[in-house]
Design a protein that fits this description.
Elements (H helix, E strand, L loop, with lengths): L1 H20 L6 H27 L4 H7 L1 H24 L11 H13 L7 E5 L6 E4 L5 E5 H6 L2 H16 L3 H10 L4 H6 L1 H9 L1 H19 L2 H15 L7 H8 L9 H16 L3 H13 L1 H13 L10 H5 L14
Parallel strand pairs: 1-3
Antiparallel strand pairs: 2-3
Length: 339
């Protein structure tokens, strides 16, 4: 009897794993395994060849075989050390709990429940003049968010941003993301010393973009409305770019603009301003479009509705043929909605 129960639980776990794979943006996993594993196996085979041909002690070649993994771990340590030291100096009060930062904790709990992450990552709220959020690897993950971003966003929008980081944690993006981000601005000597990470940084720019698409899909699971996701990531981008001159209210108005043929002069000017801002941000327009495309796709609707049913939530709204056939652009009246 116990064996049957164990088998049933194993099958249920496998089904859940397969279902969550559908949330990944196409090509993410294959690109990762092709480049990362090829690099690791290349160093291992090179080390074995050198050992067999040279006749020296095998341990001298172990360093070469372990170079990619060792470089990845060391670069992560170097990249995250200043922030971890700052968090340690701030003390326990910077950690988000239900009793000291209830709104942030509720948003985190909601994101983890929707994404079925059973161990909550730690969240550190820091004072900083800039508005940003990112996650660090290790344990259940650590999310660093600044006070300006928390003040800027509404609670449901904060849940969207936290959901993006939880998605990165869930799918194991963090170590390689952090290493690549650091090595891109590192001194040349470190690039040479950590050669595998530098090579990954040159070859995996597309993978870095794809992981952001996957994170946006995770945010869609929590928000349930692609307009909310797109408005939130646009607000976060505007907050990070101080020269943009774009306010959260302008983003909200832009998302809800009517079709182009019914705009007055003021609305046309507003559309032009936001279009120019979005086009100036790296990859932002593509991210905005793919959220709606995933919501409108058969695969996206199937996954989102199956997940909603399992979690006891109402299904996503079924789109009409007209909504499914229109060209997806931010600011269009045809953006999907639960309303």
């Amino acid at each position: 009897m116990a064996r049957k129960v164990r088998k049933r639980r194993t099958k249920q776990a496998q089904k859940a794993t397969i279902a969550w794979k559908k949330l990944r943006f196409p090509g993410e996993a294959s690109h990762y395994w092709l480049v990362v594993v090829a690099m690791i196996w290349g160093c291992i085979l090179l080390a074995l060849t050198g050992w067999l041909l040279s006749g020296r002690e095998y341990w001298q070649w172990v360093y070469l075989g372990a170079w990619p993994i060792g470089a990845l771990l060391i670069v992560n340590f170097i990249a995250d050390r200043p922030r971890r030291q700052q968090i340690k100096a701030l003390g326990p009060h910077c950690w988000v709990r239900a009793n000291n930062h209830p709104a942030v904790h509720r948003a985190l709990t909601e994101a983890c429940q929707r994404l079925e992450v059973h161990r909550l990552p730690r969240v550190c709220l820091v004072e900083d003049p800039d508005a940003y959020i990112y996650a660090m690897p290790g344990g259940t993950g650590t999310i660093v968010v600044t006070s300006p971003l928390v003040k800027l966003l509404r609670p449901e929008e904060l849940a969207v941003m936290l959901a993006r980081e939880v998605t990165h944690i869930k799918f194991g993006h963090l170590r390689l993301q952090r290493a690549i981000s650091y090595i891109r601005t590192a001194p040349l000597a470190l690039c040479f010393l950590f050669g595998p990470v530098w090579l990954w940084a040159t070859m995996m720019g597309e993978w870095m973009d794809i992981t952001e698409y996957t994170a946006d899909r995770g945010a869609l699971v929590v928000a349930g409305d692609p307009r909310r996701v797109d408005a939130t990531i646009a607000k976060a981008a505007a907050a990070a770019d101080r020269q943009a001159g774009v306010t959260p209210e302008e983003v909200d108005d832009y998302v809800n603009l009517p079709a182009k043929d019914s705009l007055d002069s003021a609305e046309m000017e507003q559309r032009f301003k936001l279009d120019r801002f979005i086009n100036a941000q790296p990859n932002l327009r593509e991210r905005i479009a793919q959220v709606v495309e995933y919501y409108q796709s058969e695969d996206g609707a199937e996954f989102l509705n199956a997940l909603a049913e399992r979690q006891g939530r109402p299904p996503m709204r079924v789109l009409t043929k007209q909504e499914s056939s229109v060209e997806v652009k931010p600011g269009d009246k045809h953006w999907a909605s639960n309303d």
